[in-house]
Amino acid sequence: MTSPLQPQVLDILERLTIEYRAIDCDPTLADTADFCAQYGYSPDQSANALVVGSKKGEPTYACCLVLATCRLDVNKTVRKKLGVKKLSFANPEITKELTGMELGGVTPIALPATLPLWIDSRVMDCEQIIIGGGNRSSKILMPPAGLLKLANVEVVENLANPVPTE
């Protein structure tokens, strides 16, 4: 049986012996809210990989992994950590150029070594998380501790803030 995961992602998971389960996904339902609604997963265990970068000067980027129930703190924590005055989310073209992956499928598993991976500490509190599979047609279910085997990774307190519930 062939895996729905991007081959490079599958190779890294197996080489680093990271426990995981690949999940097939309709590419039109790859965005977190749609995926969770269709496949019955909770946003509390879904983590989004977001590429952010400087708006001025020499381009500087990082990938941040945050729960779907949180908002990345770009104006304080991320901006300060990246050491820039102005910060924005990378557009789809830059995200694909930096990661080789499309929005809706970006995974922290196969990022280039030059791109720092910052994980909000709340992600590490989950028993299992759902992340992108490197493409829009797959997701990965795994214990978050497996992410600590990746290069250039750092767990950051308050990288994101919970979205207020109404």
Outline:
With 166 residues, this protein is an alpha+beta fold.
Profile the largest sheet. 5 strands, mixed
CATH topology: YbaK protein
Cα gyration radius (Å): 15 Å
Number of strands: 10
Proportion in β-strands: 25-35%
CATH superfamily: YbaK/aminoacyl-tRNA synthetase-associated domain
SSE sequence, one letter per element: HEHEEEHEHEHEEEE
Content-based structural category: alpha+beta
Strand order of the largest sheet: 5-2-3-6-9
pLDDT below 50 for ≥5 consecutive residues: which ranges? none
Based on the coordinates given, report the CATH architecture: Alpha-Beta Complex
Identify the overall geometry. globular
Number of helices: 5
Written overview of the protein:
With 166 residues, the protein is α+β, with helices and mostly antiparallel strands. The chain has one domain (7-146): YbaK/aminoacyl-tRNA synthetase-associated domain (YbaK protein), CATH 3.90.960.10. The chain is 23% helix and 27% strand. It has helices at residues 7-15, 32-39, 74-82, 92-99, 121-124, and strands spanning 21-24, 47-54, 61-67, 70-72, 87-89, 117-120, 129-132, 138-142, 153-156, 160-162.
